[in-house]
Amino acid sequence: MKDIVFCSNNCFVLYSAAVQAKNSENKESVPSLPQSPMKERPPKAFHQYSNNISTLDVHCLPQLQEKVSPPSSPPIMFPPAFEAAKVEAKPDELKVTVKLKPRLKAIHSSLDDCRPPSKKWKGMKWKKWSIQIVIPKGSFKPPCEEEIDEFLKKLGTTLKPDPVPKDYRKCCFCHEEGDGLTDGPARLLNLDLDLWVHLNCALWSTEVYETQAGALINVELALRRGLQMKCMFCHKMGATSGCHRLRCTNIYHFTCAIKAQCMFFKDKTMLCPMHKPKGTHEQELSYFAVFRRVYVQRDEVRQIASIVQRGERDHTFRVGSLIFHAVGQLLPQQMQAFHSSKALFPVGYEASRLYWSMRYANRRCRYLCSIEEKDGLPLFVIKVVEQGHEDLILTDTTPK
């Protein structure tokens, strides 16, 4: 017979066939009630749940054979968060820990205490690098650029290009050498043979005015007057910028006028510190840079004639990238063959020009041009002088 299980208050009781036989014997000893005349129904097995188990008398339970059941998957248990932190990984499992950035623990909570202590690699695989800068007490004077250059030159750790040759050209007005600042005297312009003037020194002279094409007129006239005028600031000759206040005789160099804090206006006028208005003026000019094309109007024929009169190779005449070395000469019997309707070809003419190289796209070289005589006709010679290559000589009977 099959076993029947009764459950009551979480207690399980197993009834087997032997237990049922024992109970039947106990029931026979008790006087039975008279049987009812009704026909007995066949007994049926019912699964009943009963809370009253006091009348049950269980002496022993038979040993039942264990039935082999198919393996079932174990239930998945989810431990609380704080217990999960205590679980350690098994040795056969792969555990990868990536530490992106150390984080300072500002608040110590109970969860932080439950975490396992991590290995400390400080001193074994990495170390903190710290630097301390000690500034001595007292006045510390940083080294200037010249001292740094000398120190680096002694160490031999730097490579510097060749120094640029000093510009010995001197302005005829302010007597300063070389090109000036863009927001100051500006670049040097050629006035005459070995005569140079700063652009703003000539532009801000009282007599000088500028044409629409950018030519400066009366620069020579201003230079003659400046040779007799003394600057109120530096007390040197060459001052040409005067105060435009009526009956004011104060006159300055352009650079000295800036140092004396004179006021310049957009209509090319200037007022000395004694007559300038107080405060700012809407027509005041505070920026003197000139980026437009400006040149000094001059008589080039007379200038070339002065080169011939003063002698060759004593002066340098330069126009842009073209440098004249010798003008040359023509004899009366050569006049018919050594000229054209537009130009003369004097024998002995020599000039050089810095122009783009024929070998390299981003490099310049020197072209030495000269005129010689061959069979009573002019011979034009161009000598290409380029560093790292032999001189290349090109000749032809025409300048083209």
TrEMBL record:
Enumerate the GO terms in the molecular function aspect: histone H3K4 monomethyltransferase activity; transcription coactivator activity; zinc ion binding
The EC designation for this entry is 2.1.1.364
The Gene Ontology biological process terms listed for this entry are: methylation; positive regulation of transcription by RNA polymerase II
What is the designated name of this protein?
[histone H3]-lysine(4) N-methyltransferase
| Keyword Transcription regulation part of the UniProt annotation | yes
The reactions it catalyses are: L-lysyl(4)-[histone H3] + S-adenosyl-L-methionine = N(6)-methyl-L-lysyl(4)-[histone H3] + S-adenosyl-L-homocysteine + H(+)
A GO cellular-component term linked to this record: MLL3/4 complex
Q: Which domain of life is it from?
A: Eukaryota
Q: Does the keyword S-adenosyl-L-methionine apply?
A: yes
Where is this gene product found? Nucleus
Which part of the chain is the PHD-type domain? 168-276
Write down the Gene3D superfamilies for this protein, in alphabetical order. Answer: 3.30.160.360, Zinc/RING finger domain, C3HC4 (zinc finger)
**Where would you say this protein principally sits, based on its record?**
nucleus
Q: List the Pfam families.
A: FYRN, zf-HC5HC2H_2
Provide the gene name from the record. Answer: Kmt2c
Keyword list (alphabetical) reads: Chromatin regulator, Metal-binding, Methyltransferase, Nucleus, Repeat, S-adenosyl-L-methionine, Transcription, Transcription regulation, Transferase, Zinc, Zinc-finger
